[in-house]
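re the bet — no i am not wrong, look at it urself. input seq straight from the record:
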Amino acid sequence: MNGVNTLQSIQAFYDAGNTRSYAFRIEQLKKLRNAVIEHEEEIYTALKKDLNKSKEECWITENGILLSEINGAIRKLKKWMRPRRVRTNILNFPSSSFIYPEPRGVTLIIGPWNYPFQLLMIPLVGSMAAGNCTVLKPSEMAVHTAALIQKIIVTHFSENYIRVYEGDGATVIPALMNSFTFDHVFFTGSTAVGKKIYAMAAEKLVPVTLELGGKSPCIIEADANLEVSAKRIASVKFSNSGQMCIAPDYVLVHESIKDKWLQTLEKIMLQFYGDPYSLTNELGNIINQKQFDRLLHYLQDAEIKIGGHYNREQLFIAPTVLTSINMNTPIMQEEIFGPILPVIPFKDRKEALQIIEQNLNPLSLYIFSNKKSNTDFWLQNVAFGGGCINNAGYHFTNKNLPFGGRGQSGIGAYHGYYSFKIFSHQKSIMKTPTWFDPSIKYPPFTGKLNLFKKVLG
């Protein structure tokens, strides 16, 4: 890892004001867009090597969604950068009040391995748009993608503007955070590591965004469309071999439709994936042996209803559905993060809520029902980051929605304008003319209490 001198040179580049102008920011965002397009085939190759992603899956979940984010920032940056006028209270009449977004400074973005390209680069778009310099730490577990990100950044950007640090995160991240005071840290990954990042940042009062995980429930009410719910859950749950923070972690299905829904799900899975015993173009591999072995242990915790095949040599686990779940086993206490879906029947909402409350503040919640009273109940009674009604996962793809968790699943939200906002400081400014200068504002204040109550009430 390069020493602290490089970080100081990045700080000096920022302090010189190089990144603040609209012209500079737009130029850099266009450079990034062109770089992603130029290296499209290399992105496909790297992700194929790391996670066996097909080109189609890469486009939808990695470089395509990143390009959408970049294009949105380019179109709207001028508006985002403008000072925003807000109302002024009567005490300060005839002042005017504004919010000026300004860059935070030098930011650190730490990416995960499951979507190793876009989950590092989409936050970068927000940092660039906000006028910051940025240090990137890609996941060492997706080694080919990390190397490609390094190549792209070194080829297209000044090392004093954006810098990539590769290597073991357990060593590199503390070295970076202990040797330099960043102005914002953005981390995507596990809750356990997020707590460590949070603690290191707190030592220097550095603000953080933590995009974590959790056990995201999927609720299927008795009136749900069986086929549509099965399609939308399966397609998201088994994408990237279930290695997705917003994947449905488990399904709570009303007992009156459980058997029919499982039959429908099995039919849909056969349509989507055939009867897989090994890797296919539609199904990726598990990232490494450690994760593979962890997932295999979950298969012992319940009855295998669908799937269950695996291939250790290929790090492959087939899409698998489990039933007869024991609530006290690890599969219901840990985020699964793999192609294994527990299905649990419930009689009433109280029973379902008790299960959800074993793992508070999930990152996502998915509700399948055509009755507003049903969906309203879950929205009002479960605290979660974001989610969908009659869909799963796709709220992440809408850059007009802030994406993030709460409590155990994260701090802060990003995407689109919200990325720009989180990487900006909102500076509050009040401008007061000199031609109006009432004596009420000045001492002596004796006898003015009733007037103050009227003005400030």
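see?? The radius of gyration is 25 Å. told u. also The CA atoms of residues 93 and 432 lie 8 Å apart. so pay up
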